[in-house]
Amino acid sequence: MKRTVTAVxxxxxxxxxxxTGCGSSSKEKLNDAVDEIxxxxxxxxxxxxxxxxxxxxxxxxxxxxxxxxxxIEMDEAQSESFVQTMSATPETYESFVxxxxxxxxxxxxxxxxxxxxxxxxxxxxxxxx
Length: 129
Prior knowledge:
Elements: H1 2-20, H2 26-47, E1 52-59, E2 63-70, H3 76-87, H4 90-102, E3 109-115, E4 121-128
Parallel strand pairs: 2-3
Antiparallel strand pairs: 1-2, 3-4
């Protein structure tokens, strides 16, 4: 009888952890956050499909990398203007950090990388809590 009660208690504990997400690994939580952020970025990507690609990817246990790649050739002044425009809205990246926190990711970091049409990095910054 004692074994049955213990087994049932263990089963209930495991089920409650699964249902509340407490049993999710940090990788699963990070991948879920990446999926949500990519869903939010899909509107931006469809609006600028001819000029820019954007994607969020997981890195390590607590970092999401947002990669913006410009698809058209730009001179140096245009590249600088693009970087200024994209970096002038830190609240966007901070909102992604907040999403990561909502998923239970410890010490979340969003790294923003911008690449020109040749794949050369023109901007790299990190945002965290």
